[in-house]
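sorry to bug you again but im stuck and you know this stuff better than me. what follows is a protein written twice so to speak, once as letters and once as structure tokens for the fold. mainly i need to know what kind of three dimensional shape the backbone takes. anything you notice is useful, everything is just below:
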Amino acid sequence: MTRIGIFGGTFDPPHVGHLILAGEAWEQLKLDALLWMMTAEPPHKIPGQVSSLQQRLSLTQAALAGIPHFELSTLEIDRPGPHFAVDTVALVKQAQPLSQVYYVMGEDSLRDLPTWHEPQRLIDLCAGFAVMKRHGSEVSLLPLIARFPELHEKVVWLNTPLVDISSHDIRQRIMEKRTYRFFLPSSVYALIQKKLYYQDKK
């Protein structure tokens, strides 16, 4: 049975923190493939705050080049919104009925799971939830498990090194002409330099 991970984000830009988390998820969950699920402009962000889709696609393609088990997926941007995780997982499973799907997320997302669209159906569809724990934080699963008992068996805490990098900080560094090249894969850095991405981003 194929084990597939889903790693969603705007990837604006994709950085080494993304790659480290993705690599740890792939290794620790023994995944056959990890789908980097490119999201359109998320509803919780201010319109225009996210870079163009083509720019983010180009940068993410550059980041994943030469990594066979990482795949850039446009499943969410190829169909009209609204886009919900439960529908994305259902479509992945529809395309590969014998697959086990693992959803990769941060612990904040896990805490907010009850507010997601059709959380029970999402839990039923997923073989597991791979969760990156924030350094120094303590998340109690008791309230979640009381509501969704099966989460007790489905949550997998990823053992990842602390890499406190954010795309927002990288964009700020570029605008302020500060050092940022070591936060990015060399291919992404080269493309940003060539295309002058984020230079005028406000």
Summary: Residues 3-163 form a domain with the Rossmann fold fold (CATH 3.40.50.620). The radius of gyration is 17 Å.
